[in-house]
Amino acid sequence: MKEQLTAALMRPISDLKYISKRRASLFKKLDIETVLDLLRFFPHSYEDWTSLTSIRALEDGQEQVFMARVTAMPTIQYKGRRSILRTTLRDESGRISGVWFNQPYHQKNLLKDHVYLFRGKVQKSGRFQQVTNPTFEPLDLPEDKPIAPESFTDLFMKPIYSLTKGLTQGVVRNAVAHVVDGVADQLPETLPRSVRSQWQLCNINYAYEQIHHPQDRQAFAVAHRRLVFEELFMVQLGLRRLRQQEIDALTAPVINLSVEAIIRFKKARQALPFNLTDAQDRVLQEVLADLKRPVPMSRLVQGDVGSGKTVVAALALLACCLAGLQGAMMAPTSVLATQHYKNVATQLAGSGLNIALLTGQTGAKERRELLAGVAAGEIDILIGTHALLEDTVVFRHLGLAITDEQHRFGVRQRIRLTKDEMNRPHVMVMSATPIPRTLALILYGDLDISLIDELPAGRQEILTYTAREKDRRRIYELMEREIQAGHQCYVICPLVSAEDKETDLQSAVELAISLQEGVFSHRNVGVVYGELKEKEKQAVMQSFQDGDCDILVATTVVEVGVDNPNATFMLIENAERFGLSQLHQLRGRIGRGSARSICVLLSEVGEGIARERMRTLCHTNDGFAIAEADLELRGPGDFFGTRQHGLPEFRLANLYQDKDLLVLSRKAVDMVLAGELEVTPREWDWLEFGMEISLGVSPGHPGL
Predict the structure, then answer these.
(1) Are 500 and 484 members of one domain?
(2) What is the domain count for the chain?
(3) Could you tell me the pTM of the whole model?
(4) Quick one: 296 and 406 in the same domain?
(5) Rg for the chain, CA atoms, rounded
(6) Low-confidence ranges of the chain (pLDDT < 70)
(7) Could you tell me which residues come within 8 angstroms of residue 15 by beta carbon, excluding any fewer than 6 positions away?
(8) Which of 380, 316, 378, 385 has the alpha carbon at shortest distance from 353?
(9) Residues 336 and 444 in one domain
């Protein structure tokens, strides 16, 4: 039975008789390939057709819904290539003119003496009324029946779907309606009865029918609540099951240091040119305690920009290697991987460990030698990018894997880094992006969380100001003053080159040329962006790191992890183009030394969300407060940018607006796993199906 239902839901939509091969290819652009994809392609908004108004009561300038009879044969007037379709609409209270511009095809759809529902914006001038380009739906009413809005109850909310070129709302609505009608009665109930009963959730059939074609606002709210709860529940349950599966079935090397190794560890720590903060020490102890257990560590280490996560990672890797094992550290970009390599190599310089770097730019010969050294156990710590995930990378005995900026990789890649089916290394995740606890519970439900909530001593608060184009001369004077004082500056641009821009925003390349040939002709101006060849990018970054480059013009390639304590000034062009947390990350590239630092947000935007973001940044340097504000202002989808890998792509849930359901669904997960809510073996089967859809991996279920 389950196999048949699953096969029906996973059936390609190209097999459906009402979807042609051409339309199936258009749906694919919307990531819709199966019946289940189409069923879960929820409307992004609705047109409300549930409130009827009589023609006499229509208000000027408002979009309203009214019922009327077409009392005159529609006529078309042409003016050049333009057309105007006119007719008269009437109910028992009065009449109104209907006008459609450049829509002559409606002449055959509007039949004289037939009754329709109309929705549009009304214009009134004295006794004259007109509705322009209204949408309409035919009603099956007898010609002699009076039109009385108060007696008509068959109203609805019309779904509005995201589209791609070639697909219309009508086509998508028709396809979804066919799927809902065809499979709604057969849909497997993915939430156990005990969970639905405890939190008064409707059944899955009703939820899908009413989310796609709600009969009224209340029905929509009931369906929406059930589906949002289910999304949050499945992701959290799936992540918790993955973690429990590791605990139950997998083993990890126990990292207990010998007396000699402890002495070497302490000596390396004492050799650091700074003391760890209390927060760094606390988190390090939590990590070391995890490493002593035979269960694979899965820990998220969070900290604001500049809080010193890398040195905690370096010392954890040191402990692993002193126990005779190997360590790996993965970063999302080669720039950041190279910086991690340099930092870790410096911090562990006296340890005698062999530390290597592997990126996509590593030459073939060096790569072969490096991989042989890793396989033989001769390389103690391997640092790199996603190149570490390739099948050719085989460790002799990997004890600890550290991933940085984990939300850019996701659950599947986290699993791929640990290739052994039963023996897993310990896993530590570092996130330089402060994540509100509400999001952390979702993103990292399978991880324990540590927080470095203290900055190293001597750091000064970054002063942040907003400015407009008229202030540019003054800004450049401040930059010159910083350079004269021996410091360096960043200038951040949202675009790369003229070919990439859809607006007149100044690109990074253009601005760098303008600065070098203009006001800063006596300074060394560099430019770096994501598409730059890797060797060129590294050369520019190294020049800036060495102090040879006075001003670095860059895109967001410097957003994460770039560390130059001598940089004290940042100008962010078109600051309204960046999210709040992204602005905070960019700002975190300065203020990393003991000198005062200044960040200027340049924008011509007046009021609105963008200006509110900038005000927030000016008022606080607390990354977690900023993350909460960003989540509230923009929602979780934009919080991490477009389709970032780690954030589950929720179709309905909004982690800020649905915080209450997040708490309730988490409680439901706790009760299910504790056995406080009954879940039958058959219900576990469908739970597993729901978790697999949500996570893309199957965590299995207990006891079966």
Answers:
(1) yes
(2) 4
(3) 0.68
(4) yes
(5) 31
(6) 1, 144, 150-151, 153, 405-423, 432, 437-438, 441-443, 495-506, 559-561, 634-649, 696-704
(7) none
(8) 380
(9) yes
